[in-house]
Write a structure and sequence with these properties.
It is a single chain. The protein is mostly helical and 154 residues long. The chain has a domain of 105 residues. The chain has 7 helices and 5 strands, in the order E-H-H-E-H-H-E-H-H-E-H-E. A 3-stranded parallel β-sheet has the order 1-4-5. Helix 7 links the parallel strand 4 and strand 5. It is globular and about 40 Å long. The relative contact order is 0.17.
Length: 154
Amino acid sequence: MNSYYDTGVLLKLYTAEPESGCVQDFVRLRKDRIWVTDLHVAECVSALRLKVFRKECSEDESSAAIELIKADLRNGVLQVIEMDWGHAWQECRLLSDQFASRTGAQTLDSLHVAAARLLGVKEFLTSDGRQAKLAHSIGLKVLNPTTSPRSREE
């Protein structure tokens, strides 16, 4: 596992958002296996249901996207990796204490960066500026797959 995809990036593979095409191209070119945790899956389901609540998509569109995620989990397109969540939360607290006042990263942003650190990845993929600052602060290479190929490194 070399790369950690933030949920916001992952969702762009399953929804029609302005940056979806860039993310899809990025994933296709890299041919990486995409590793996810239970946190990713829970956040994806929540975000897709919230899109219905905010009238950004229909119930059918939300359900179809969730079914695509489930199919990709079954077919190995998305690979689930187990986490020690107690350890991840502990690391999240340390990162928040050390960096939140400088980066503005919120709790779930910090939890994802903590998970990436514990999983030993080298790259963190996000389009969230605060999360990118945090990941960079702990020495991860940060890529933004929602931008053009020439400007992907944060």
